[in-house]
Amino acid sequence: MKIMQKFIYHKGILTLVIGALLNSCSDSHFEDINKDPNRPENVTTTTVLLSAEKQVIDNIRNENSSLRGSQLFAQYYSQNIYSDQSRYDIPRSYSDTYWSNAYKALNNLNEIIKLNTDPATKSIAAAGTAGSNANQIAVARILKAYAFQNLTDVFGNIPYQSYGNQDPEFQALQQEPENLSPAYASQQKIYLDILNELKAAGDTLAKYKTATTFGNYDVIYKGKNDLWAKFANSLRLRIATRIRKQLPAESKTHFDDALAKGVFTSNADNAVFKYQSLAPNEAPLYRATVTANRKDFAVSHIIINVLKGELGTVKVQDPRLPIYATKNAAGNYTGQPYGLPVAAAGLLTATDVSLPGAAVNAANYGEVLQEYAEVAFLISEYKNWDQQEYINGVTASLQKWGVAQADITIYLAALPKADKANVLNQKYLALYTQGDEAWAEIRRTGYPTFLVKPGDIVWSRTVDGKTTDYKFQPLFGEGVPQRLYYPPKEQSVNLANYQNAVKAQGNDDITTALWWNK
Q1: Most buried by CB count within 10 Å: which residue of 86, 155, 270, 506?
Q2: How far is the first Cα of the chain from the last one, in angstroms, to the nearest whole number?
Q3: Prior bond to 481 cis, omega within 30?
Q4: For residue range 244-262, what is the model confidence (pLDDT) as tens digits?
């Protein structure tokens, strides 16, 4: 499978790092960047890490898989010209791009591990400010776990690579000899191994909390080992929760262990990749809307109505409304009706509806990998919908977006008590912009229940006294997609393993539920 080849020394990859270092690194680092990238001995693990971080986040939040995929599936956004993706007509080419770019990033992360374990390169890899071999490997393992978790949540069974597990199904990134037709591992095995990877990596970094790894080349945490350890444990809460229905004992073991070892406790712990205001390093949404001058994605009527207090259980205006969305030309917050038929989708123009807010659509937006609000909601769920953790999660989300304390107090006073619906509704609101995780939670829980369903009237339009009701009718499936199609090229370059995966998992279509959701 060609995506499994080495990408690390290609000139096109290393050029990504130049702009990203403008504001975060000293001039001395540019000597490393300007060395010949075609000579492997001149490539440092620090520049590989920076490139890989950007690749991972760029891919998860790219226009096709995020803006035209998970953000629509979560009904945060709605299309106001072409509405096919809103109604789940998903081009298979979207999968090709997401899949290929994910494995490019994973190959880079795996290269960091290789350079830090190979006796011929490990001393060079640990030179300067990069950090110890063990700590570099631990950070790479955490990012690999994060990337693989997102990848399997999109497709299900996938080719997988583990650091410490020599299972024959865990050799997707093998390079010597190059693995061109890797087997697909089951999602159950992947999830369990990811939990073990995060535990091992987090434990390693916790031993050296005051040390730094990769320094300012690490955009997410600026090399702080203690925060990487917290991130590893917090991701375990997410993943353990995802598998609780299928593997309750394993879920509880990891949840309890991660909680005891230390997870996020404030927004200062959030895992965020912050983009820059200068090309080519602007945030993905900015590139898709401002740079490309696209205005065909507006905030959906669902989330606008919830934030206005007109839908859901909170009956006051949410102070995140002017942050999440802009007013239309008439000075109102008006959501684009979700999933209109094509004939009606363009009847409302971009000036009639609310577009994403300025903070959300900023060039230097910080894309969230995971944040404290999510962690608090996970703990609330684990503790049978704990009230205080519920309040902690809502407060953290409001504070993250810069809401004034007076407005936070008013909003908290209007919250209904914690229960399954109320906690998950607030979690949904907090995950705005994190379409990948919101989509997964909708599949796992079935909440929020106020999302549009097939047959629902999404817009009533009156012209010359005649009212037309437009209903939501998916083009494929009966509701929110359960997964995306495998990339078409897998059938030509890795047919036998593709067929085995389909046989084990179910039909290669968007209605086949993933293992953790069966």
Answers
A1: 86
A2: 29
A3: no
A4: 999 999 999 999 999 999 9
